[in-house]
Amino acid sequence: MADAVLECPSCRLPLPDGLDVAPSVERCDSCGTRLRFATFPALFRPAPETKPGTTALESGEATCFHHEQKRAVTTCDACGKFLCQLCDVEVPNGHFCTQCFEAGARKGSIPEFERARTRYDNMVWSLVVLSLLFWFLSPLLPLAAIILGVVKRKAPPSLVQRSRLRLNLALAVATLEFLGGCAFWISVWVAT
Amino acid sequence: MLSRDPNFRRLKLKARGLGGSATYWLGPDHLLIVTQDGYSERYRRIYFRDIQAVLIRRTSTWIWIMVFLIGMLVVLGILPLTVGDPIGYWLGGINLVLWSAFLIFHLIAGPTCGCRLVTAVQNRDLPHLNRWKQAGRLLDALLPEVNRAQGRTTVAPAPPPENPPPDAAATP
Are B158 and A21 an interchain contact pair (Cβ–Cβ within 8 Å)? Predict the structure, then answer.
């Protein structure tokens, strides 16, 4: 429990002892802010030992892909490269090299690494609504919405909303707007 | 979709703000926070084994919002009614209903707060979780999961009250 110090979020002064009673509602002794907090065993756990930077290599042992003088301790689950302790990125579901970890985070190919997705369905809906407001620009905005929707139709959908359904609905409305806009401007052109 | 995934359970929290909203999901070994801000969705995973503490602090924003809403109610809702003009009655009436509704919703939502998750390497403020009741619900949902992940089977009991009831004091 040597390092078990929690700071008050308001005044940043250490909260009093006895934090292993959880959960509780108290006031900070320093600033009087009302707090509700819970602490967990991880707070009182000693810091893990750091990985050794180098490992002596003996003859006949597999070596790290990036460091020829270091012993391989595992392989990358994505590309299969041999990794030493320094190059190993350990996540709950496996071990990865730094390149695969970066690529997985960027492309979203490994779900655990994925950090963001773009909501193209919302973009298409915005264009659909904008084309209703700026109807005199029609059918340009619906056309942009259709192109964006078709191009990004295969993009990964939202994790929490039915974005594919929303995208298809937006495409249907945009198509109607486009056809209506074309009909309007053709009728204007014919009349003049 | 996460709602169809049996490994994930959505916490029913109202986490909305001016810039977007957030949903909180309990996964098999982590808390997944999905933040939506218009055209993007961001994911943040916090593993139960890494959570050291959850801190919720009450903020004074609640009072300032209430002062603002009461001010708007008086200026836009009640003052026009005192003018004696038909248009004033209409405008005042509409504003009275509108700002009263805002005020009631605000009072029902309860005090505001900031919620922070503490891990060994970072202190992360939880997005859009700014009401005391909602943050308390998150804490209640997290407690058993984190305790289980970190090997604590029972939660330590709360400290006894400083002034015990008279019946308890009378018993030998």
Answer: yes
